[in-house]
């Protein structure tokens, strides 16, 4: 649970500092990201699974944690998330396995918050 809180606290603190810099390009980039993951032709769950798989293939642990949190909030279950993990590892290859380990650890922490 501490793993989740530390990540979320740090992310919120740094995003605030970034946005306080009042840079129009960065603000627009953040807004674009928010809008891209809003429901449209694809529902939120599908978009978060795509974001998760892409983040794993790109090997961005912060991005993986972020999308895992959003998947959890959207009500995705462990089997759905693990299916996305399998696709990401198939596309990304064995180099993604270390990120898979950290992703499973983070998913477990998210599930423990419910208990």
UniProtKB/TrEMBL annotation:
PANTHER family in alphabetical order: ALKYL HYDROPEROXIDE REDUCTASE AHPD (PTHR33930), BLR3452 PROTEIN (PTHR33930:SF2)
InterPro entries from the UniProt entry: AhpD-like (IPR029032), AhpD_core (IPR004675), CMD-like (IPR003779)
Presence of keyword Oxidoreductase: yes
Official protein name in the record: Alkylhydroperoxidase AhpD family core domain-containing protein
Keyword terms: Oxidoreductase, Peroxidase
Source organism of this protein record: Roseivirga pacifica
Keyword Oxidoreductase found: yes
UniProt xrefs under Gene3D superfamilies: AhpD-like
Single GO term (MF): peroxiredoxin activity
Domain Carboxymuconolactone decarboxylase-like: 26-105
